[in-house]
């Protein structure tokens, strides 16, 4: 296997066609294409990320299995959703912490759809206890948090994303210097990419360098929720 890898034009082509034919009959007829053009390509990328991820964040895993691994399932849970389309029309890859099944912990994320691609790091909508722990750590270590947020390497790759409260959370000082970040509901940073960039072998290098730049944030979040980075 080549040192670096990316996705394939046929992957994006299949996802675009699935957007226009999001029904079980079409998917069943084209399932072999899905496995070859999407599933196998994504698993190859995950395998290629195993060694570099071990060097970047050794307690996060790249698991190349069809079910229960880093590749998120194509089937949507429509039981309680108004949107009853049965399939996701994107590739979602999450590199989770080794303790993710036991505690809410940070993760690394790769997202590809026909019209958008991005990378993500951090915690999206953490549970109330984890959210409180992160906020309390920011309160206790404001200088450390501000250094992370102002780090030039991190800012070149990522920016914080997600919704925030309109008012300070209960029990937190409205005049704290980091109050705008304390008000966040998620502690996730994203990097938008051109879809075409994901189709080049250099894409993996972009992923690696981006994930590496996020180490201070990921370390801070891990320490906040009580897991080792």
SSE inventory with pairings:
Blueprint: H1 9-20, H2 24-29, H3 31-56, E1 60-61, E2 91-97, E3 107-113, E4 116-123, H4 128-140, H5 142-150, H6 152-157, E5 159-161, H7 179-182, E6 187-193, H8 203-213, H9 215-225
Antiparallel strand pairs: 1-2, 2-3, 3-4, 4-6, 5-6
Radius of gyration: 19 Å
Helical content band: 40-55%
Q: Count of DSSP helices? A: 9
**Biggest beta sheet attributes:** 6 strands, antiparallel
Let me know the number of strands: 6
Q: Whole-Å distance between the termini?
A: 28 Å
Q: What are the segments in which pLDDT stays under 50 over at least 5 consecutive residues? A: none
Mean pLDDT: 95
Strand order of the largest sheet: 1-2-3-4-6-5
